[in-house]
Amino acid sequence: MSGIVLSKEFAYPAAAAVSTFWLLIWQTFRVSRARRAAKVDYPQVYAEKAEAAANQAALKFNCAQRAHQNTLETIPMILTSTLITGLKYPVLAASLCGAWTFSRIFYTIGYSSGDPKKRYMGGNLLFGIVGMFGLLLGSTATVVSFVRAL
């Protein structure tokens, strides 16, 4: 019976994965601050459409909440593909996850401005796409190589 032996370089994708935790915490603080400013009480997830149309703070809250929610929707794929890719290509996995995480900072700042079009400011869309699809391809290649080795 054989197993997977982690190289010492696996510390890089592990560190990149941990960076996503800090991203989520930072986004949570932004959403909480926007929620207070908009006076949207729990358990309401978003401000109502009419409320957001009449109140800039409510619109900004909705945008901050959506940026965070979108990150939560993609984080399982990012973390899983980072760790799988990191088994064979640790530096690549860490770099791609880092690029994705970095892009989410600018995505969040832009989206939280209250203008959803600003979520792709400064070329962050490219970093996010390269990071995500690079990890998907890397994890697929890693799994294929493991299956072929059976």
UniProtKB/TrEMBL annotation:
GO terms for molecular function: glutathione peroxidase activity; glutathione transferase activity. It is found in: Membrane. It is a multi-pass membrane protein. One of its GO terms (cellular component) is endoplasmic reticulum. Keywords: Membrane, Transmembrane, Transmembrane helix. It comes from Ganoderma sinense ZZ0214-1. This is Uncharacterized protein. SUPFAM superfamilies: MAPEG domain-like. The keyword Protein biosynthesis does not apply. It comes from the Eukaryota. The chain crosses the membrane at residues 12-29, 125-147. InterPro entries: MAPEG (IPR050997), MAPEG-like_dom_sf (IPR023352), Membr-assoc_MAPEG (IPR001129).
